[in-house]
Prior knowledge:
Elements: E1 4-7, E2 57-60, E3 63-66, H1 74-77, H2 80-91, H3 97-107, E4 114-117, E5 119-120, E6 128-129, E7 141-143, H4 146-153, H5 165-186, H6 194-202, H7 218-231, H8 252-264, H9 270-279, H10 292-301, H11 306-313, E8 330-342, E9 345-359, E10 367-371, H12 376-390, E11 395-398, H13 407-416, E12 419-422, H14 432-445, H15 457-472, H16 484-489, H17 501-507, E13 510-515, E14 521-524, E15 527-530, E16 539-545, E17 548-556, E18 559-563, E19 565-568, H18 593-610, H19 622-631
Parallel strand pairs: 8-11, 11-12
Antiparallel strand pairs: 1-4, 1-7, 2-3, 3-7, 5-6, 8-9, 9-10, 13-16, 14-15, 15-19, 16-17, 17-18
Helix pairs in contact: 2-3, 5-7, 8-9, 15-18
Amino acid sequence: MGCIFRLRRGRTLARPPVPPTPEPRPPGKAAGRAASPPPRPRPRPRQTSPPAPRAPLLAVGRASLRSGQGQTPPSALYGGPIASIYAPLAAKPGRSAAHLLVASSIHHAHQPVLSFFCSFRQSGRPAVPCQPPPLCPCQHSLALRRPSLSAILVSTCPGGKTMSKSEERRTEIALFRYTLIIPLIRGEYSPRGKEKLRQKIAAGHYDIPHSSRRSVSASALARWERLYRERGFDGLKPRSRRDKGQTRAISLDTLDRAEALKREQPFRSARSIINILSLDQTNPVPEEHIAPRTLRRQLSRRGATAAQLLVEQRPKPYRRFERTHFGDLWQGDAMDGPYLPDPANPDRQRQVYLFAFLDDHSRLAPHTQFYWNEQLPRMENCLKRAILRHGRPLAIYVDRAKIYVSKHLDTICATLGIQRILGTPYYPEGRGKIERFFQFVQSDFLPELAQSSVVTLPQLNESLLASIEVVYHRKLHSETGQAPLERFRQDPAPATRPADPEDLRQAFLHRAERKVYQTATISFKGNRYTVPTYLRGKRVELRYDPFDLTRLEVWFNDTFLQLAEPEEIVTTTHPDVEPDPVSAPSPDTGLDYLALLRTERERLLQEQLDTIHFTQLDSSNPKENENDDRSQ
């Protein structure tokens, strides 16, 4: 049974009203009997008050606020600190009552808001609250349970920082001790009754935090009171171990040798270090067994983890870098996107992901697009579209995610003459340009989705493209002093190279080997295809687009033979590639910001088309054109 706290404001308030006496029972057979001597009353060891009727609970986390029916709330009765506690509880049911109570009792000690009610457990009987001490008027109690304290102590740490587990435990124990000595500190006892009150508190049974004991001694209460008067709330916290921060399972000599091995190679694991020390027969370690977890913890305290060592070794200060021309370097990365209604299940929200490539010189985005997942074919599709629009760059700069270190991407880059540069682990500073672009998407584009009619993936991509071309490409960049589109157009010698559409299509095709059956057929991902009969029993190479398995190229000895004829098509996409769900048409809800951007983009495209003279595109001889004009 946990301790029960009563809220009060001062000591001069009246005691709580006595509950009404229950109505007498109707007379029965015993009413007509002769008067008999009353039964001998049982001795009552303590004066107890009848338990109040259960009242509805207002849930506030793990603690709860009891408010009796027909009673005035504490905020109206007492105001002051009581109102400061009751009002937030009623306004925000998710806030812990214990949190507010503790904060008020610790940080507003000059306005006492707590009075102690101990509860004790009799053998074979439920716990009954003791008779309240005098000068305790409030009938609205806050029941503090120990499991709720650990959740609220983290947020009561000075400075708003998160406590460590050991400090949280010490604070929880100190809080429990503080609740026991409140009557002793406030002087809530009769003259020469302090020792009697101390014995009364010590006779109770409590749920003591982090302890199997159920009671405390009177001498402990006296010691806690003395420590609180001398050192305040911190005096109630248990003392820390004298050897705190020192290792007992590993000797200092062994730990020094382990630290030297870690600093020699920062990526060396704790298990490898233990194996090296155990195999070194020239200087054996005294420990028979060293737990890797213990060694990792001690190395972390010494600042010898891989991340800490790399921070010390990385060169500082960093220098800004920027390529000379458009297409010298494209930075690529992915970002988590918003949630959209799943076309396959409209009642379910599904997250989309953004792939983007950004030019290092101009900050222009060759192509960005949202997809339903972060798989390799999606990234390849984004890169392919960027090359189709602006040509092949000299190099791309990406991180070491799984999709960027794949062999297929390496093959694509080698085929197209593109250098793939992988970022160094623990060095994110080199990709700051594309992270800044993602910041524009998160701050200027995504917030507008809540007020728009975008509900499908095609609408989202169309709105993103409009936002980039109308806003981002025309906005002045703080670093370059120019808009990305203006800087791109003023580049005298772009480094991008044109790409032949057929060569580009071949470069992005996936490849797989299959053996031809004696029936001159092959099976691939559940589908069956027909091939020439002279290939029976031979292994052929299949080149395919993972998004379209109806078209399968058959190659033999690096020579293209023909397209495989579909015989039985079960699936049109590769199993590793989730097909794009069919989106339902969205309702027409009127104009919004993203719709205006799409309209503006169409207007800009039309202006560009109006400046092009299509009749002169194929004119190789001006005289012939003049003759054609005259003939018309």
